Amino acid sequence: MDNKQKAALLFSLIGEHLPKNVLEQFSREELEKLMEGMNSKRKITLSDERKVLSDLYTSFQAPKLTSKSTQKLFSKEKSLNEEVYSTTYPKGSPIAELKKKKKEELELIVKDEPARTIAMVMSFANPDEASTLIEDFPEKIREQIIDEIQKIDFYSEKLRSELESFLAFKYDLIESRMIVSKVKNRSSKTVAEILARISPNVSFKLFSSLKQRNPEFAETINEHFYTLQDLLYVGRTSLSKFLSQFHPIVLACAFKGIELELKDKILERCEPWISRQIQLEMDSMGPVSLAEIEEAQKALIEGLNQAVDSGKIKLWKVK
């Protein structure tokens, strides 16, 4: 792997544990390189993940990295390096855990996956549970799955490594109660999370630039990248409930930085009581700095991402 790919893999493994202000220290060029690394066509194996985490562990041994903040991050990642799978699967590997899964759990794992992936899961799952699940597929899909099973080399270490990496990712999604079927591209999801955690102004420019260079990758990112404009596609009740979680001052501050027409449309979709609260705060609010606006908007966007991922808000992207 080149350095961009290593950085991308490392971020996908530990990104959620990083302080929110870490990405703000990156230049636009560095962020672009990080996102480009996410789009690598190279197949990532369990061995790759362990190697990158091991390199991180080694880097923290250097004498120059002895600050308290560095030591704090190191202690977290040392634990992650040593127990990257054992924390979630204390009694064995992801494949060993697969043997214990019931039909309902297998359904979540293979939902919306291609025939080859389903075949791999079926082949290493409990035969009784797998046989009852395969009966639920349409005949054409069943035939494709059976064809793929016949091609599987059960002695291939590469295949086992690929399956372990896939299972670890799916187990984490299921455990965090994310909408598994929404995440069809792990890299795109991670890039969307990066964009959600930086300044809305910077994230828009980065996404626009990426869309010009690689429209196909940008399209998959767009499935997971939400902006304040996407609030227009949330139902009235869900929208009002979502916005009510934030203090009216935060909402007013965030809306100060968007176009008047968009602000009016969003407020029209809210329940009258919350619209009045926001408008009242905006009317009585004095000058607001760009930094305050961006922080408020980041809070809303991050909250929107979490609400969609957890299923609290149903939102279909308009392309």
Describe the structure.
This protein is 66% helix and 0% strand. The chain is mostly helical and 319 residues long. Among the domains are: 94-182; 228-310, Flagellar motor switch protein FliG, alpha-alpha superhelical domain (Annexin V, domain 1, Orthogonal Bundle). Helix 1 crosses helix 2 (28-38), helix 3 (46-59) runs antiparallel to helix 4 (68-82) and helix 15 (248-255) packs across helix 17. The longest helix is centred in the C-terminal third of the chain and has 21 residues, at 290-310. It is globular and about 70 Å long. The two termini are 33 Å apart.
Task: Please render the helix and strand layout as text.
Blueprint: H1 3-14, H2 28-38, H3 46-59, H4 68-82, H5 94-98, H6 103-110, H7 115-124, H8 127-134, H9 139-151, H10 157-175, H11 186-197, H12 200-213, H13 215-222, H14 236-243, H15 248-255, H16 260-269, H17 272-284, H18 290-310
Helix pairs in contact: 1-2, 3-4, 6-8, 7-9, 11-12, 11-13, 12-13, 15-17, 15-18
